[in-house]
Design a protein that fits this description.
Distance between the termini of chain A: 43 Å
CATH architecture of chain A: Alpha-Beta Complex
Strand order of the largest sheet of chain B: 4-10-9-8-7-5-6
Strand content of chain A: 15-25%
Radius of gyration of chain B: 22 Å
Number of helices of chain A: 6
Structural class of chain B: alpha/beta
Number of helices of chain B: 14
CATH class of the largest domain in chain B: Alpha Beta
Oligomer: heterodimer
Number of domains of chain B: 2
CATH superfamily of the largest domain in chain B: Type I PLP-dependent aspartate aminotransferase-like (Major domain)
Strand order of the largest sheet of chain A: 3-2-1-4
Largest sheet of chain A: 4 strands, mixed
Number of domains of chain A: 1
CATH architecture of the largest domain in chain B: 3-Layer(aba) Sandwich
CATH class of chain A: Alpha Beta
Shape of chain B: globular
Largest interface: A-B, 23 and 22 residues
Number of strands of chain A: 4
Distance between the termini of chain B: 53 Å
CATH topology of chain A: Sufe protein. Chain: A
Strand content of chain B: 15-25%
Radius of gyration of chain A: 15 Å
Order of helices and strands of chain A: HHEEEHHHEH
Structural class of chain A: alpha+beta
Number of strands of chain B: 17
Helix content of chain B: 25-40%
């Protein structure tokens, strides 16, 4: 129970209740869908990348648990305005945090996103937090569909 | 093993003590296991039978001339007799060991489908089906050019049978319906469906996965053509299950998988297949699991299905009453006839979050679409939280579920 309070921090609950950048994005030139077939979570991630390779705008829609929705919402606020390369670096840092591979004391640019650190202690829920990030990564790489099941990174690059 | 004369007089508290797994802590809390619809727990009597099998008679079946093999074969075939008695099948030939319910349904879909489904034919399923009773039919239909019709449900999760006669067309070749819905707990009027299908000479497959451990099933009284179930929903081990099929259908159906016991004779000119039930049993079966399933059948029969059903109805009624009284909790699936499954959601909280928070308090429920996505779509929910009860649950388990739900509401501020 105390672990659960640490996990469901107010910032996560707030983004769950009032997701930022929610809804389809006009003029999106990158779109990907992320699904977790085990639980049915499903998000579509939109991004508009300009000629300078900057992610000008992002949006998302879909449904899922508080963890996945807050992860999606907070992701959109952090990625908007970033260069694609630094967005991809952030995605990698987020993934590494949830799989316990990131040195949290070391150099990283996660900032507030560290509220998701506790999810790493709940293996069943890691996929929830990673799903929208996974989809964003797929969108930036020009893929259309991704999934947290199977070796989707390999499949989607076929 | 003979029935213990004391079986009927044992209290539910004593029965609960048969299940060693329930006497443990999860995250510092006593375990409240409320996920029997996914897999039922095994009593010590089943675990003991597995130990007995592995430590005294494990050997391959049906081929050894040595004593161990004969004993293992005997122990395994004894279970077929227990299954025949459990279901009241006419003959041992009608009781086929499979890998489980899903495997059994695949067997019927592919074997019956190859023999009897042609382009333009139709398969009638219910809107309450689990993926395992949808996807095998989609695959065979695609292969042969047949299509699927669906019996609709109402908002309470009950099948609507008003239009059934129109759905039973002259091209309908088989009906597939579950006895009890895994997602909502609805007990379906399968006797009526079978009677109305039979009036048009259409056979019916019953997915009995959620029924056999909770009520007395009599395939002759039901007049089911096929009936499938899994050992692990019956307090037995995983990896084995049963397909009951009427002999005249099974005789006309081609073998499904090939090799092992399903063969009588092989030459380069061709193969002669074994007779029923071995015709459908390829390769070495899950022998230990089968022997364990036999112990589970003995155990449930000793408890008595009427007593089990009454106990579970009592738990369901209590839990339904308690959960209905919690503001913001909505029960999903409120059929008049229900088995001990309680699907619900909490306004403003996704079921996965409910599941995680309950788990942190030692309360094990299922959260998700329960491999029944069409049911969720029909009811307009992405997923549900599902507490499912067995006779080994008690009032404390319900108290802990209710307390856990209040924790969820508190954390989410709803």
């Amino acid at each position: 129970m105390s672990d659960m309070r640490a996990l469901y921090q107010e910032v996560i609950l707030d983004h769950n209740r009032n997701p930022r950048n929610f809804g389809p994005l006009e003029g999106a030139n990158r779109v990907a869908q992320g699904t977790n077939p085990l639980c049915g979570d499903n998000y579509t991630i939109y991004a508009r990348v300009n000629d300078d390779n900057i992610v000008e705008a992002v949006g998302f829609e879909g449904s899922g648990c508080a963890i996945s929705k807050a992860a999606a919402s907070m992701m959109t606020t952090r990625i908007k305005g970033k260069k694609v390369e630094s967005a991809e670096q952030l995605i990698e840092e987020f993934r590494a945090m949830l799989t316990g591979e990131l040195d949290m004391q070391g150099d990283h640019s996660l900032g507030h996103l560290t509220v998701f650190e506790g999810v790493a202690q709940l293996p069943q829920r890691v996929k929830c937090a990673v799903l929208p990030w996974h989809a964003m990564n797929a969108a930036l790489e020009g893929d259309e569909v991704t999934s947290t099941e199977g070796d989707s990174d390999i499949w989607s690059k076929e | 093993m003979s029935a213990q004369p004391t079986a009927l007089s044992r209290s539910w508290e004593e029965v609960r003590a048969d299940f060693p797994i329930l006497a443990q802590s999860i995250h510092g809390h006593p375990l409240a296991y409320l996920d029997t619809a996914a897999s039922a727990q095994m009593p010590q009597q089943v675990i003991d039978r597995l130990v007995w099998y592995h430590s005294t008679l494990h050997s391959n079946v049906h081929r050894g001339v040595h004593t161990l093999s004969q004993r293992a074969t005997q122990a395994f075939e004894d279970v077929r007799l227990k299954v025949k008695n459990l279901l009241n099948a006419r003959s041992l030939k009608e009781c086929i060991f499979t890998g489980g319910t899903t495997d059994a349904i695949n067997l019927v879909a592919h074997s019956f489908g190859k023999a009897f489904l042609k382009e333009g034919d139709r398969v009638l399923l219910s809107a309450l089906e689990h993926h395992a009773n949808i996807v095998p039919w989609q695959r065979i239909c695609e292969e042969v050019g047949a299509s699927i019709d669906v019996i609709p449900i109402n908002d309470r999760g009950e099948l609507i049978l008003d239009g059934l006669d129109d759905l039973l067309t002259e091209r309908t070749r088989i009906v597939g319906v579950n006895h009890v819905s895994n997602a909502l707990g609805t007990v379906n009027p399968i006797e009526e469906i079978i009677a109305r299908a039979h009036a048009r000479d259409i056979p019916v497959l019953i997915d009995g996965a959620q029924a056999v451990a909770h009520m007395k099933v009599d395939v002759q009284a039901l007049d089911a053509d096929f009936y499938a179930f899994s050992s692990h929903k019956l307090c037995g081990p995983t990896g084995i299950g049963v397909l009951y099929g009427k002999e005249h259908w099974l005789e006309k159906m081609p073998p499904y998988r090939s090799g092992g016991d399903m063969i009588l004779n092989v030459s380069w000119e061709g193969t002669t297949y074994n007779g029923l039930p071995h015709k459908f049993e390829a390769g070495t079966p899950s022998i230990a699991a089968g022997v364990g399933m036999g112990a589970a059948i003995d155990y449930l029969q000793e408890l008595g299905f009427e007593r089990i059903a009454a106990r579970e109805a009592e738990l369901l009624d209590k839990a339904t009453e308690r959960l209905s009284a919690i503001p913001g909790v909505r029960l999903i699936g409120t059929a008049e006839h229900k088995a001990s499954v309680l699907s619900f959601d909490i306004e403003g909280v996704h079921p996965h979050d409910i599941g995680s928070i309950l788990d942190s308090e030692g309360v094990a429920i299922r959260a998700g679409h329960h491999c029944a996505q069409p049911v969720m779509t029909r009811l307009g929910v992405p997923a549900t939280a599902r507490a499912s009860f067995a006779f080994y649950n008690d009032d404390q388990d319900i108290d802990r579920l209710v307390a856990g739900i209040y924790s969820v509401k508190e954390i989410f501020g709803v």
